[in-house]
Amino acid sequence: MILTDNETKVDLLNNEAISKTIIELLRENPDHPVTIGVHGDWGAGKSSVLEMIEAGFAGKEDVLCLKFNGWRFQGFEDAKIALIEGIVTGLVEKRPAMTKAAGALKDVFNRIDWLKVAKRAGGLAVTAFTGIPTPDQISAVVGTLEGIFADPGQLATKENLTSAIEGVKSMLKPAETKNVPEEVEAFRKAFDKLLKDAGIKQLIVLIDDLDRCLPDTAIDTLEAIRLFVFTARTAFVVAADEAMIEYAVRKHFPDLPETTGPRDYARSYLEKLIQVPFRIPALGETETRMYVTLLLTGAEIGEGDADYAKLIAAARERLKRPWENAGLDAAAVKTALGAKADKANNALALSEQIGPILASGTKGNPRQIKRFLNTLLLRERTANARGFGADITLPVLAKLMLAERFIPRLFEQIAFVSAVHPKGICDDLEHLEKGLVAEGANSRGDGKAATDVRKASKTTETVASEPESAVLSEWVSSETVRDWARVQPLLSGIDLRPYLFVTKDKKDYFGPVSILGHLATVVEKLFGGKMTVQGYESELRQLAQPEADKVFEAVRTKIMGTGALETLPAGVNGLIVLVKAQPGLQSKLLDFLEALPSSKCGPWAVSGWQGVVKDADCVGRLTALLTEWSKVTNNPALKAAAELALKDTKGAR
Predict the structure, then answer these.
(1) CA distance 316 to 293
(2) Residue 451 banded pLDDT, cuts 50, 70, 90
(3) Nearest Cα to 298, choosing from 248, 257, 346?
């Protein structure tokens, strides 16, 4: 069961309200030209709204609805020509019996030829207004091309240019207008006459995926739309993310005057072209829960099922007032689906469990929600195919994936410990979850719930008396982590190794950690706060030298893996305590410092080492490194810190 990510006429988001509003607006004054924008982030459902608009005009003979996808035409043809010619050819295809319009059709195609001239003649004479060259400009192009033959040094062959010249000459029509504004007006009149003769009272062009195009393609398409903006009976509905279009405008016009900021100009450009903007709202928590329920149920019983249509109708009714409803419940599903309601049990459970965090993490984006669900279902299938599907349950996998996707540091911390635990358990996570359950029970006065927590593991008093690890302290202080931990089901006592194994498509947690074994916990401790890690010095002294080497390498690798060295990285304070407890690591410490990129390293790299580097050779290496850093020219902060450290060193002597 994989959810498709194509535009659809099946409305699960209640976007039909937007499509109906746009259809009504278009039909109010069909004679008047209008440009409507359907805006929203990538994956918000813009394409589906266009599908609904097209479906809403189906069967209306006096309305012609055409779709144009700029992204699909990108790279194949000049965007202006592709759109304009696409509109006319679409008209011919959908209205083949246009005997009365034969003359008007020929006139329009002749005028489209003018657009092609600029392209075939090497892109010369493209005007900022419409891209249509004048006859004088075309004559100049022909003269230039003919002159090439007299110069054998030109990088062109007669065969290559002959066809271009003949094509250009064939388009020269002396009787036609001699300036761009007149030519533009002539095209509009010819196109308007074509619509009249074809019996079309309104032409609606739906433009999709404009925000996927390269900036020049997007601008060319918008410029082509401008050609029709004042043409009667013609309406455009443009689906695009405003931010991407504004970016395209700024890239296309890089040399704007200082008095007109690029952002202001881009916004004005779009607002002038798009007369009526509609923005698709992001899904809230209630809408996300409903959407997840409908998606998974539809995939299970089929979108064409009559009872599924009843469930959609029930959801739409509740979506009319989402602030008063908590989503679809078992009773509503039972009423709509009848005997098939059992097939929606997983959908209901998952939507209830992951809806709140999924809504927040995806910012209510339908495509992101689909991608999350598809990854979830695909991983479940993979576990089944590899023979350990019985060890995987969707609710637990979904909860872990929420952390993986939206709180990656939390997921890494859980995975790092659970992968090497003999039972696949993360003790800190158990303490966090049980503490939150007890906290909730106490706030409700629920004595039974608190008693259940005590029976399940240690008593609340015992847990509270134990010192918190640095990781647990970090989790408890984060409201985001606490919200995630409250999501059902709780993971206490669950072997998480099968779930980590099925996430190996992104990272293998059983490679490096299996080498560390029980030392993985020691490494994790060293990434705590400065005061916390100092308390581990006596524990670190108990490590054998080979163990200390492994811990040092693991900490060093994690620090360098962050890539952010401008400020003090987590783990550095732990590294200092480790070397202090294990003096045999001093040489490895200098290897680490010497490998730091001086151009990207903050002043933290200078201090803290003098108290742990005592070996004569290592002291000499450290002094030489500080001297080298004191001479850098591309990092003033590091240079100043190194100079000060050298002065302090000399003063101490």
Answers:
(1) 13
(2) very low
(3) 346
Q: What is the DSSP string of 395-418?
A: HHHHHHHHHHHH-HHHHHHHHHHH
For residue range 373-390, what is the model confidence (pLDDT) as tens digits?
Answer: 888 888 888 889 889 889
With a CB cutoff of 8 Å and minimum separation 6, the contacts of 450 are 438, 441, 442, 460
Name the residue ranges covered by the structural domains of the chain: 16-95+200-279, 285-502, 512-652
Q: What is the mean pLDDT of residues 237-263?
A: 73
Measured at the CA of 83, the angle between CA 82 and CA 86, to 5 degrees, comes to 80
Highest mean pLDDT among 362-366, 455-459, 546-550, 568-572: 568-572
Q: Is residue 500 classed exposed, middle or buried when 0-12, 13-18 and 19+ CB atoms within 10 A define those classes?
A: buried
DSSP symbols for 79-135 = HHHHHHHHHHHHHHHH----STTHHHHHHHHHHHHHHHHHHHTTSTT--SSSSPPPH
pLDDT in the model for residue 550? 82
User: In this prediction, what percent of the chain has a pLDDT beyond 90?
Assistant: 8
Q: Of 224, 238, 249, 183, which is closest to residue 87 (Cα–Cα)?
A: 224
> What is the Cα–Cα distance from 364 to 376, expressed in whole angstroms?
18
What is d(CA 607, CA 640) in angstroms, rounded to the nearest whole number?
Answer: 12
Contact 223, 256 (CB under 8 A): no
CA distances from 306 to 313, 318, 490 (A): 11, 19, 37
206 contacts 67 by C-beta, under 8 angstroms: yes
State the Cα angle at 218 between 215 and 221, rounded to 5°.
Answer: 150
Structure confidence at residue 618 (pLDDT): 92
Q: Give the 3-state DSSP-derived string for 134-189, with helices as H, strands as E and coil as C.
A: CHHHHHHHHHHHHHHCCCCCCCCCHHHHHHHHHHHHHCCCCCCCCCHHHHHHHHHH
Strands (E), 21-99: 34-39, 63-69
> Prior bond to 489 cis, omega within 30?
yes
**Which residue is associated with the tokens 């062959």?**
157
Q: Distance (Å, rounded) from C-alpha 271 to C-alpha 7?
A: 26
Enumerate long-range contacts of 624-630, CB under 8 Å, 24 or more apart. 625/590, 625/593, 625/594, 628/598, 629/598, 629/605
What would the mean pLDDT of 99-111 be, rounded to a whole number?
71
List phi, psi (to 5°) of 547. Answer: -70, -40
Q: What is the largest CA-CA distance in the chain?
A: 103
Domain boundaries 16-95+200-279, CATH class: alpha beta
CA gap 632, 638 in Å, rounded? 8
E-assigned strands of 209-331? 234-239, 276-279
pLDDT at 549: 86
CA distances from 88 to 22, 112, 122 (A): 23, 10, 24
Over residues 134-152, mean pLDDT? 47
pLDDT greater at residue 216 or residue 278: 278
pLDDT at residue number 122: 41
Q: What is the pTM of this model?
A: 0.56
Question: What is the edge-to-edge ordering of all strands in the sheet holding 63-69?
Answer: 63-69, 202-208, 234-239, 34-39, 276-279
In the predicted model, what is the mean pLDDT of residues 274-296?
85
Is the Cα dihedral 169, 171, 173, 178 positive or negative?
A: negative
